[in-house]
Specification:
six-stranded mixed β-sheet; 40% helix; globular
Length: 330
């Protein structure tokens, strides 16, 4: 086994790894941030990594570490490389490139799906989703998901070559904000459109934020949108609680942020969030009505247990090892 591992490592070192996305270099976007952290993590393992971006998200505020290349555009399909695509179910230039070159990309591509089929159906992307999944199924392309929930959801569409790898991020990014987490405010953080009002009203039929504000009047409800990455982490560090409402989340990378900055998640007991939170949060049950605790009380011991769990579960180094094992199956 060790000899086989060495041979594979040599093979990977000779082949390039292309991370292909529609996002630009920003830590403020979760898919872009994951791609950056994966690229830098692979680079630290001495693999040659290039991020290719179609740049349909124009915000660019990050400089890659030495060893990772960035190219605006798409690679040549003839390149001897591992083509690792980062997909949602929106048809973008990179998804069209993949679907157009299914035969040529066989046996050298892998796809990370950052959303679930259930989410695509809610967002009226069913036709786009089915086109992408049909192509993935035809080529038998390995699919990476971040939760068992996402994997089981894909089974509805006869997707079998699917692998669950819990996500990892560069946890060093939190260090300079930990000091802020020692000065917690009675604050519940709501980031951007999470919980998205259209999602709540369309799918659940509730105005969730109004319910939260009326129920927990002794807390400040901090709604933020389009913050810089540093300001976002600073607000997370100051907050006692973070709201993660979506019931169709593939995992919830913001849960990792909350855990590492000692904010306790308030979350719906549905979807991939149940795997991300690992039972250490405030559960929201949504049936005929929203069921919430009558009072909220911040528990530093639980917050520290969450922090310890995340340090063990979510380092990018652990995730990279699992990704390399998946590359071996291509």
């Amino acid at each position: 086994n060790s000899r086989r591992g060495c041979l594979f490592a040599n093979k990977l070192n000779m082949r390039k790894i292309f991370l292909i996305t529609d996002r630009n270099l920003t830590l403020s976007d979760s898919i872009a941030r994951y791609t950056i952290d994966l690229a830098e993590g692979l680079s630290r393992q001495n693999f040659g990594v290039t991020i290719f971006s179609t740049e349909e998200a124009k915000r660019k505020d990050y400089i890659l570490q030495n060893g990772v290349k960035y190219v605006s555009g798409l690679p040549k399909v003839s390149e001897n490389a591992i083509f690792h695509f980062q997909f949602t179910f929106s048809q973008r230039l990179h998804t069209k490139f993949f679907l157009k070159n299914l035969e040529k990309l066989k046996n050298k591509s892998i796809v990370t799906l950052h959303v679930t089929p259930e989410y695509a159906e809610i967002m009226d992307q069913k036709r786009e989703m089915e086109t992408i999944l049909k192509g993935l199924s035809y080529a038998n392309t390995p699919i990476l998901t971040f939760s068992n929930y996402a994997k089981y959801d894909l089974k509805r569409f006869m997707i079998s070559n699917c692998h669950v790898v819990y996500p990892g991020l560069n946890l060093d990014r939190y260090k300079k904000f930990l000091r802020d987490s020692t000065k917690k405010e009675k604050q519940i953080l709501v980031v951007a459109s999470n919980p998205e009002k259209s999602f709540v009203q369309k799918v659940k039929g509730f105005n969730f934020l109004e319910i939260i504000k009326n129920k927990y009047k002794n807390f400040k409800i901090k709604e933020v949108i389009n913050l810089s990455f540093d300001d976002y982490l600073r607000e997370m560090a100051k907050s006692q609680f973070y709201i993660a409402l979506s019931g169709v989340e593939h995992y919830g990378l913001a849960i990792i942020d909350a855990y590492n900055l000692l904010a306790i998640p308030i979350y719906t007991n549905e979807g991939g969030l149940t795997e991300a939170v690992y039972g250490k949060g405030i559960t929201i049950t949504i049936k005929e009505e929203i069921v919430l605790p009558d009072t909220l009380s911040y528990n530093m011991q639980i917050a520290r247990e969450n922090y310890t769990f995340s340090v063990r579960q979510h380092p990018i180094e652990k995730h990279v090892k699992n990704i390399i094992s998946l590359y071996e199956t291509i």
